[in-house]
Amino acid sequence: MCFIYVLAGWEDSAADGRVLRDAISRPNGLKIPRGNYYLVDSGYSKREGFLSPYRGVRSWTMIGALEASSRGENLCSKIDVWKKTYACITDMLARSGIGLNMTTQMIVVSDEVFKSYVKIDHFAKTLRFKSFLYYLTWTEIFGKDRVTREHAEDIYMH
After folding, report:
1. What pTM did the predictor assign?
2. Which of 61, 70, 114, 64 has its CA nearest to residue 92?
3. Which domain of life is it from (predicted)?
4. At 97, is the secondary structure helix, strand, or coil?
5. Which long-range contacts (CB under 8 A, 24 or more apart) does 3-12 make?
């Protein structure tokens, strides 16, 4: 489905985000029905009613995962929770003694190692014994935007 909204009076060089803000702010402007979302390109800022893909992610990947997992939920907040969960799992997996069972999609860790990690990241407490069915999709969506310690170098002062 394709939707086109025309707002006359703007120059060609006007940023899409500015035009969208103007269209939403007008009394008889663009309205987004509650519970619906428009898919926009990554040039738009995050805002309620509009979903923009993460850099380097195909839009259909995110939409398919969202449609499969949420019915009537706020999709922007769902994406935020997914991103936070993915970040926590990624940090956990970078540590010794913590793994991910790819069959069950569950964290594998001893009680002692887990208790030690939860002291560092309290959010991790909610992740034990849960299956992360969308972990591989999250890796495709969020993985490229994640900073890792890989290839990091120390700064040497002389």
Report:
1. 0.53
2. 114
3. Eukaryota
4. coil
5. 3/38, 5/30
* Pair of tokens at residue 53: 């893909």
> Rounded CA gap, 125 and 121, in Å?
8
What would the pLDDT profile of 114-126 be if each residue is shown by its tens digit?
999 999 899 999 9
Residue 63 CB burial class (10 angstroms; 0-12, 13-18, ≥19): middle
Tell me the per-residue pLDDT of 70-123, one tens digit each, with 9 for 90 and over.
555 566 677 778 888 888 998 899 888 999 998 898 999 999 999 999 998 999
Distance CA 104, CA 125 (A): 18
CA angle 54, 60, 64 (to 5 degrees): 105
Is residue 54 within a helix (H) or strand (E), and if so which, with residue range? none
CA 63 to chain centre: 11
**Spatial contact of 126 and 114, defined as CB atoms under 8 Å apart:** no
